[in-house]
Specification:
With 226 residues, the protein is mainly α. It has eleven helices and three strands. The chain is elongated.
Length: 226
Amino acid sequence: MAQSGEGSPPAKRARLTFGETIEVLVGAGKRSFTVHKDVICSRSSFLKAACEQWMKERKPVELLDDEPHVFDLWLQCVYLQKPPAVENHAVTFELLYGTYILSDKLGDLRSANLVIDEIVRLNDKAKKLPSIEADALAWSGTPANSRLRVLLVDYFVLELNASTFESCISMMPVDMVVAIAKKFRFLKENNEHRKGKEVYWKRVSSQPKCHYHQHDDSHPSCAKSE
């Protein structure tokens, strides 16, 4: 490890402060949340811009299209640096989907990556994702390049048997069916000489680390952050 020169000042590290707070109004009912400015402003350029607007006008940040209970789960990710705790297992996936979608919308890739890792972990534990209705809603709530969409496609291609998949098709958005069909075709065309079980019937948890993550200049890849 390189040594700093004698007399050189110690390296500065970013430090969060908890003195100043801002107000965030969430949902149609404008539920009020008081959060520490430095904590959420550091999460993304979108949130930094929102905080700067707060500093100029002292008007609350508004997220009126989002659900307060999902925002609360996102705050758990931000403050605790781990996936949100969801007590009711029956709705765990649905709430995690919602938390991922909000994290992605806010540009908070750290939280998005934490949550999608938890979705993968729970899928591996439960051996299934939630209902097709929840999967379809999650698909419809994400952009075309979403890593959550990549996860859902992999799940339907790699883990479901044919009869279960066929029973789900009628409840899927058309572009979801198309994406799954394209993945099937890609795997078939690029694995002509391999047995089916070598290509399919794999857990999504067997994918490389970082496979379902998002990264940018503020959120380095897993290898760089280790």
